[in-house]
Amino acid sequence: MLRGRNTAHDRRRTQGTVRVLAFACGWLSAEASTVLSRASGRIDFPIPAYLIEHPKGRVLFDAGMHPGLRTSPRKRLGQWADLFRISYRAGDDIAGQLRRLDLDPAAIEVVASSHLHFTHAGGLEFLPNARIVVQRREWAAAHRDDLIERNNYIPADYDHGHLIQTVEGEHDFFGDGSVVSFPSFGHTPGHQSLKVQLASGQIVLTADACYFRETLDRLHLPRIVYDRSEMLSSLLRFRDLKRSGARIFYGHDAEFWKTIPKAPVPIC
After folding, report:
1. Cα(141)–Cα(160) distance, integer angstroms
2. Which residues on neighbouring strands pair with residue 261, listed in sequence order?
3. Residues 52/59, Cβ–Cβ less than 8 Å
4. Does the predicted model carry a pTM greater than 0.85?
5. Continuous segment of H or E residues that includes residue 112
6. Homologous superfamily of domain range 8-257
7. CA distances to 1, 135, 195, 211, 234 from 241, in Å
8. pLDDT digits (tens, 9 = 90+) for 150-203
């Protein structure tokens, strides 16, 4: 039987440390130049989501893709489906990933949404009791017809009647500085990333503000960007965080993905 609280998983969570568990909610393949300027050929990349466990509760960072992409990608994505090859097994969706940890998706109370693209918001439908924490700019853009078209939002991914908490600037989830979202605009109008303080030091979950290591090292932006200037500013902030000792978790870097533990093993 799936449970929310009062499991062995919860007892580990109450021992006073913050834990992060990483999931790959499927993989995509696309022309490399779509996601990395000056690149050629095709590139495969994971669709990550992260469960942050704090003694006071849980925060899910992003929700992956909708499982409907396995059978009807064009129905959900329209012509955008033609840009991708999708590798998405049954159980790879966020609900399936949580169930493998003996967690009921209905028990997830908070989702920190980096932004509302289909690769990050498609699983929200299966987290019915979650409060969605999103930057005010992102939520507003995702409900303007012109910006929905310009940014390729799919309202079916995020308009499910959830309780929405819109924030401006940094948001401290537990009031102790250990889990803090912050603006990383540019990829979309209101993109945000997440800083998490582990016992080993700070990690930064960049999501699509920094697709790959090369994005940060060489400032090679994706071909499709809402605001290049804002995205470059976000990348420079990541560089500052890296210089201060933070570990940068690139949004879709397959080589980097190989180096980190996957759930149920926590990131150290």
Report:
1. 17
2. none
3. yes
4. yes
5. strand 110-112
6. Ribonuclease Z/Hydroxyacylglutathione hydrolase-like (3.60.15.10)
7. 42, 21, 10, 16, 11
8. 999 999 999 999 999 999 999 999 999 999 999 999 999 999 999 999 999 999
